[in-house]
Amino acid sequence: MQYSHKILEKIGLSKGEIQVYLAGLKLGPALASALSKEAKLSRPLVYYILESLEAKGLVSKFGHKHGGRFTTESPSRLKGILERKRKELEKIEQQLDKATVELESLYSPKAKPSRIRFYEGIEGLKNIAQDTLSVKNTEILALVPTENTFALFDDSFLNYWRSEREKKQIKSRGIWSKFIDTPLQSQNLQELRVFPKDLMFPSTVVIYDNKVAVFSSPREQFAFVIESDEYAQTMKALFEQLWKRCRSNNRNL
């Protein structure tokens, strides 16, 4: 059930809601006391969770107000939650377009952003990867220890990143530790070369506009972004020198 737990978490159910929901699927129509025992949670907490699940359309109640039985709805109802979230996000996206105009009017160029931003955890790393898609000069330079880089993100996120990159026609040059097939490969937008055999390192480095993002290995799961014209120029110069030393794969991806 580990896979099911992960999916239920992704659609927004808390751990307690998952425990009660799975207990309900197993028991069928049941009293709160039975659900409490099966889920191994206190009865007051189970009542609270049942109210939450009922509001989401995953549980229904019949019988007396006190002592009634609860029925867990079919797992097919879960798709309804995703559909509602999708519509909510579409609405928020439309509202954000309007709000951005107002927010930009408040932004003062004199208020310089932090020069270094540090992130921990996979969601923080995804935020930085998303930020690389905001590149203005439409080219990204990347030093990629292949196995570490692609172990950081799941295929779902990699496919999303590639799709957004293709929409924006963002080109890149990458120096990889070795060539592998990944969802990040994008025809006509990506030129790849391979590290010299005497040069290996565990961190991924991405240079875009005046920013340099550094991603750790999957074991440490941290990243930071340095926003500096001088530092970005320095890293670009180093990248160009390394690019000349590297072996090309003689094809665009």
Automatic annotation (TrEMBL):
Residues 8-61 form the Transcription regulator TrmB N-terminal domain. It comes from the Bacteria. This is Transcriptional regulator, TrmB. The lineage of its organism: Bacteria, Candidatus Yanofskyibacteriota. It comes from Candidatus Yanofskybacteria bacterium GW2011_GWD2_39_48. Pfam families: TrmB. Coiled coil: none annotated. SUPFAM superfamilies: Winged helix' DNA-binding domain (SSF46785).
